[in-house]
Structures are given as C-alpha cells and as structure tokens.
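Example 3.2
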Amino acid sequence: MSDFTTAARPYANAVYDIAHQGGTLESWGDALANLAAVITDAQMNRLLDDPELGKKQKGELVNQVLGDKLTDKQQNLVKLMAKNGRLKLMPDVLEQFEATRAKAENKLEAQVVSAFELSAQQTDELVNTLKNKLGCDITLTTTINESLIGGVIIKAGDTIIDASMKSQLDSLALSLGR
C-alpha cells in the first residue's frame, strides 16, 4: 500500500460520509473527478510545485479554475487539502471515494485483458460467473493484449485471475528449469 493511498484515505472517507449523509454522492463523484483532472494537468502540476506560491494560493488557484462547478463544501475540501499540502492526493481520493461508493452499492468494476476480442456471449458469461463468485454486480471493461497468446487475465477488486496462455507457458518453462 502506497503512502499516497494511506494519506488519501481519511479525505476519501470524510467526503464519502458527507456525500452519503447529504444524498450528494453523484455530485461529489463528479467534483472529485473534475478536481483530479485539474490537479493532474501538466500546467497545473507545475504551478502546484512552484515554491513561490503559498499553500493557500494553490487552493485558491484550483478553486478558481473550477469556478462555480464546486459547492462551498467542495471548495472547503480543496482549501483543507491545500492547507495540509495534500492537493496532489486528489486522484487517490477520487479512486478511494469511488471504491467505497461501489462497495456500499454492492458493485465492482472488473477489468479483463484478453488476447482476442470477446464475443457478447463470452462477456455475458464472464459477468455472470464473476457476479456469482464475488456476490455483487459487475461492470466489465475489456482490453486486448495479443501478447497473452490466448486466454484472459481478470482483475476484480483484490482478485486477480491469470488464465492466459503466456502465464501457463511461463509456468511450464519455469517448471522445466529454463
């Protein structure tokens, strides 16, 4: 676990609690996504690294960029994170907020990497299998990586299933001492 993840967790948990209690999960999710996009912008990154700018000024700068897209509470989050020198954690806060939200809604996003494009039937079967195995609704995103030769690699939360031909061949080569 990275230091960024650990440092971002209290912010993400606090934001989730505020958003859940206020019924504003969607609004907060959008705001965090916008903030993460602004914070990771190359030009903004240079400004946030500028030692000439004070912490308060950096927070004000981020709030100015997003203008009226942020509520008062969301602007206060920016000010607090700026004051604590934590603005660059915003992408991690977003990631943890969305993970907490998905868990509370009993949803999980799974990534499937396959050697070839999956048919609609294969995708449906994968979703149903994962849903039964993990006990939650699954949103599936797929990508193609021809270097796998065949099979798939599935990442769903903390679960990783590597059923690729490349992995099996690598294991076989290892067991043969090559």
